[in-house]
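Onboarding guide, step 5: your first structure request.
Type a short instruction followed by the sequence, for example:

Predict the 3D structure of this protein.
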Amino acid sequence: MSGRVALITGAAGGIGAATAEVLAEAGWRTAGLDLRPSPTDLPVVVDVTDRQAVAEAVGRVAERFGRLDLVVTAAGYYEEGIDAADLTLGQWDRMFAVILGGTVNTCAAALPHLASGGGGAVVVISSELALTGGSGDVHYVAAKGAVLGFAKSLALEVADDGIRVNIVAPGPTDTPLLAATSPWRDPAYLATLPLGRLVRPAEVAYTVRYLATEGGMYCGDVLSPNAGAVI
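The system replies with structure tokens like these:
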């Protein structure tokens, strides 16, 4: 994999940072798009909800490295404990702007670069909750479900260009997005999981790397590392 280039959104922390680290260990060059500088070869500070800024950032990455082989859309955030009846329009719009809008903006900017290089891979980060639903975080689940549908449709659209699009839908993962008081950290909940623990960010990152490399048979598929939350 030496010399291949990966662009990762949300690369300053959590799953995005873990993905950048795992890919770098495998010889990839990495570029990170985030609101904060990321531990990548080319950190670019940008808001993924700003389509023009994302297009310029992706162009900068392609110009710097001369190619683009993989795009990972991990930018997002999480809110929980909000009932549907109490959800504000601002909360709804912001969640969709970051999670769905950020994914769409990044893919729209990156696909021409992938295609011009003969193809590549896109891995979209959704959520296990998009497969099952969740109480108290309906806007997050809806946005992650929309990302899943978008990615499946995109996979059909760009396969002829040599671009494989797939989805990773992690279960509760041990990142800063989960507050210390989150019910997903409650020992009583963890005891219901066959593995008895949260998923680790690096485990999600290894799933991403697999889809980008050995997983050449996957197209429009969902892999869900979730510690047995969904069987």
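Each response can be followed by summary notes, for example: The chain has a mean pLDDT of 95.
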